[in-house]
Amino acid sequence: MFTYSEKLRQECIAFFKEECDVEIDHEIADIYLERLGDFYRAMESIIKNSTTDFSSKDIRFLEQPERVEQKTNTFEN
């Protein structure tokens, strides 16, 4: 049984075919729609947990995210 409607799954399938030239089935479309919903809820949570001055378009989070340092791969001969 699918979580999302036939129409929504068909739109998702059509989107991937048109934009990515990839064919997906209804099961994969349902999974993608579920993950998109998870992503939306995560973004909504970030927005709710931040203070925003929309006039300056400056976003300050209540908790500073940990700084992630980029690591480079080095190969020794």
Structure description:
- By secondary structure, the chain is mostly helical.
- The chain has helices spanning about 5-20, 25-50, and strands at about 50-55, 60.
- The chain has a two-stranded antiparallel ribbon.
- The longest helix has 23 residues, at about 25-50.
- The model has no long low-confidence stretch (mean pLDDT about 80).
What topology emerges from the helices and strands here?
Blueprint (H helix, E strand, L loop, with lengths): L5 H15 L5 H23 L1 E4 L4 E4 L16
Antiparallel strand pairs: 1-2
Give a quick set of tags describing it:
single chain, 77 residues, mainly alpha, 2 strands, elongated
Summarize the structure.
With about 80 residues, this protein is mostly helical. Helices cover about 50% and strands about 10% of the residues. Strands 1-2 form a two-stranded antiparallel ribbon.
